[in-house]
Write a structure and sequence with these properties.
single chain; about 180 residues; alpha+beta; five-stranded antiparallel β-sheet; four-stranded antiparallel β-sheet
Length: about 180
Amino acid sequence: MEQSDFPGWHGTTIIGVRKGGKVVVAGDGQVSLGQTVIKGTARKVRRLSPGGYDVVCGFAGSTADAFTLLERLEAKLEATPGQLQRASVELAKDWRTDKYLQKLEAMLIVTDGTDLLIITGAGDVLEPEHDIAAIGSGGNFALAAARGLYDGDRDAEDIARSAMAIAADICVYTNGNLTVETIGG
């Protein structure tokens, strides 16, 4: 099958919400190939503890590529314990300049309970406005929903779960099978 004939992997919605001193990262479990759901229970949100510091990561894109990036991030965090922003910038620099890493197709949301960052292959380390980050096929749906739900009495986890439910109702590449990790607070 030629590259141009490959229907492409789609799926994943990951959201990070920071509110009340707590950060929640939630991700759905769907992996699709073209119009077919290959798996509905993938785990795309993970907790790392390099150097004894907890970091929660969510990834969208190619799973193998994302795991490569998570391993690299973990190594950067071990070299700079407790400095998520610095480790993220170092990862983004490597990702942008290393010929092997440049081919990786994934995005990450990472948090240590204080910083909430999006890391991209374009060399970006972004701290999103409004304390909400979202990536993946249904990311914009989840982002819009979370922003609409943010003001009020809801906590970070409730906002993330509700936003993911809304995204799952709209995006065919997102399901309601969630993995949720909380840090801080």
